Amino acid sequence: LQKDLEEVKELLTKATRKRVRDVLMTEKHKIELEIKNQPPPKPKDVAEEEKSSLGGYTVKINNYGWDQSDKFIKIYISLSGVQKLPAENVQVNFTERSFDLLVKNLNGKNYTMTFNNLLKPISVEGSSRKVKTDTVLVMCKKKREEKWECLTQVEKESKEKEKAAYDTSDPSEGLMNLLKKMYAEGDDEMKRTINKAWVESREKQSKGDIPMDI
């Protein structure tokens, strides 16, 4: 940007036509504004320190266990050797409905985990993390002492949709929903089996062998 600005200034000294000078002036102001809005460069030693502290590549944590008491939601994350890290390498940021965990430079890798849309609000001030042998424990302080049926709003909605799909007074409709789910989630062998059963049931119904269409 600085080199662009210098070149535009040089062209301005050579330009004689008003229209060309106006265009160059506009470009000059535009580049100056871009330079002004640029974040200041970090000192080299700070940049190198950050790079070394975040060395290696980042792994997203998907496996965890969780439990709850009257006051806390507890999330357990297994990470071999995590207790050997400096305390500042294990960071958790909390908001009222989320938290994210960052473990830096554990055996040459960084580990992250993010939970958004927690089922109920938590107390940011009362929440914390504990590092134990091969485990990080994230403690989310409940704002209200009540039982959570799951961790996130998305999980709750997913469970409700699944329940609604099978909660029907018509047994044949419930069976049909179950077959559809098995077909959608099954492998090729499962799909062939369901297709065969479907064809056979249609044939039997057309012959009047069975009264109900499954």
From TrEMBL:
Lineage top rank: taxon: Eukaryota
The UniProt record lists the keyword Phosphoprotein: yes
Native organism: Ceuthmochares aereus
Taxonomic path: Eukaryota, Metazoa, Chordata, Craniata, Vertebrata
Domain SGS stretches: 137-214
Subcellular location: Cytoplasm; Nucleus
InterPro entries: CacyBP_N, Calcyclin-binding_UBL-bridge, CS_CacyBP, CS_dom, HSP20-like_chaperone, SGS_dom, Siah-Interact_N
Gene assigned in the entry: Cacybp
Ranges where the record places region Disordered: 32-51
UniProtKB keywords: Acetylation, Cytoplasm, Nucleus, Phosphoprotein, Ubl conjugation pathway
A Pfam cross-reference name: Siah-Interact_N
All residue ranges annotated as the CS domain in the record: 59-152
GO biological process: heart development
Main location: cytoplasm
Function: May be involved in calcium-dependent ubiquitination and subsequent proteasomal degradation of target proteins. Probably serves as a molecular bridge in ubiquitin E3 complexes. Participates in the ubiquitin-mediated degradation of beta-catenin (CTNNB1).
Record's compositionally biased regions (Basic and acidic residues): 42-51
Protein name: Calcyclin-binding protein
GO MF annotations in UniProt: S100 protein binding; tubulin binding; ubiquitin protein ligase binding
One of the record's GO cellular component terms: nucleus
